């Protein structure tokens, strides 16, 4: 029971963290924030220098590369019933929502590309700037009973 609650809270915290990170990924004109048409116009006309390196790469390539380590149902796992053996789950659904929001923000259709490797390889790929984001069950290690050290968030 405690594990289920911890996992649910971890998932909610991760989703909230991702939402806050993506909210801070760009700038928009405050006068244009009142109407969605103006917001889309500002987003579509944003310079590459305003977006940062990751969002610029996503906009230019038209795809977001997601690193994951399948095998942790319900977060990410391989759908063996599909012909393509796609990776599905809660993290991939979060990735789909991120891509939907990025498509609107960047003004281009962004496609999802999933790199399914081991957890350690995913961390190395993020550090080497080979992927755009890592969506995998990442939790902070417990150092002692009174303190939890958080892992860095990559994007």
Task: Provide an overview of this structure.
The longest helix is centred in the N-terminal third of the chain and has 22 residues, at 2-23. The strands form three sheets. The protein has a three-stranded parallel sheet with strand order 4-1-5. The chain has 155 residues and is of the alpha/beta class. The two termini are 32 Å apart. The chain is built from six helices and seven strands, in the order H-H-H-H-E-E-E-H-E-H-E-E-E. The radius of gyration is 17 Å and the shape is globular.
Question: SSE string, helix = H, strand = E?
Answer: HHHHEEEHEHEEE
State the helix count.
Answer: 6
Oligomer: single chain
The global form is globular
Mean pLDDT: 75
Number of strands: 7
Ends: how far apart?
A: 32 Å
Radius of gyration: 17 Å
Low-confidence stretches: 24-46, 144-155
């Amino acid at each position: 029971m405690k594990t289920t609650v911890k996992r649910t809270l971890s998932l909610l915290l991760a989703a909230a963290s991702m939402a806050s990170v993506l909210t801070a990924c760009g700038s928009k004109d405050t006068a244009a924030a009142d109407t969605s048409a103006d917001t889309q116009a500002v987003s579509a006309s944003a310079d590459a220098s305003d977006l940062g390196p990751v969002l610029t790469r996503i906009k230019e390539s038209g795809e977001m590369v997601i690193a994951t380590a399948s095998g942790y149902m319900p977060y990410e796992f391989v759908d063996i019933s599909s012909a393509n053996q796609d990776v599905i789950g809660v993290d991939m659904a979060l990735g789909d929502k991120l891509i939907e929001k990025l498509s609107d923000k960047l003004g281009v259709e962004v496609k999802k590309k999933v790199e399914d490797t081991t957890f350690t390889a995913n961390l190395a790929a993020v550090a080497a700037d080979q992927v755009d984001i890592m969506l995998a069950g990442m939790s902070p290690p417990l150092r002692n009973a009174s303190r939890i050290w958080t892992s860095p968030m990559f994007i």
